[in-house]
Specification:
binds iron/sulfur cluster, 8 strands, 6 helices, single chain, two-stranded antiparallel ribbon, 151 residues
């Protein structure tokens, strides 16, 4: 059993109410070989919602307390993002899932790259808050882009 970011399975749970469907990953969910989760919605955020970026580092720095998640209006949403990560791990553990495919560039799900915290569209190397949390708990994550290039 695998877990994929819900927006990759075609669920319109992105901040802008859209999805980022990946046909292969959607089929995995439809066939029952994977489940889909959206950490930001698990944390309690609505869809649509304000876009957010990590300021001061990446997801690992959020967990060490040196970075925070801020939305485009300046609201600190760090605790909501952390709660979504905790709930995601809880569900993965309940189901014994260790194969995890996350949406690249997201402040929650990014596995290699995230936006740089300036809302300018610039990317930087780093992981999202949920990706970091799962890694800190011994799970390995791959991005949708890595998963596709492995095929
Ligand atoms: Fe997709 Fe993850 Fe963002 Fe939810 S938190 S919309 S699953 S990238």
């Amino acid at each position: 059993m695998k877990m994929v970011s819900a927006c990759l399975a075609g669920i319109p749970c992105r901040y802008d109410g859209a999805h980022k469907e990946n046909e292969t990953l959607k089929k995995l969910v439809e066939s029952g070989a994977a489940i889909s989760l959206c950490p930001e919605m698990l944390g309690g955020l609505p869809t649509p919602r304000n876009p957010a970026e990590i300021v001061g580092g990446d997801g690992k720095d959020v967990w060490s307390g040196t970075a925070k998640v801020v939305d485009n209006l300046g609201a600190d949403v760090t605790e909501i993002y952390k709660e979504g990560a905790r709930k995601t791990l809880e569900q993965l553990r309940e189901l014994g899932i260790e194969q995890i495919i996350l949406k690249e560039k997201s402040p929650s799900c990014g596995a290699c790259q995230i936006y740089d915290g300036t809302f300018s569209g610039e990317l930087k190397k780093g992981v999202g808050v949920t990706a970091a949390y799962l890694q800190l708990h011994g799970l390995s994550v791959v991005s949708d882009e890595q998963f596709s290039s492995e095929k």
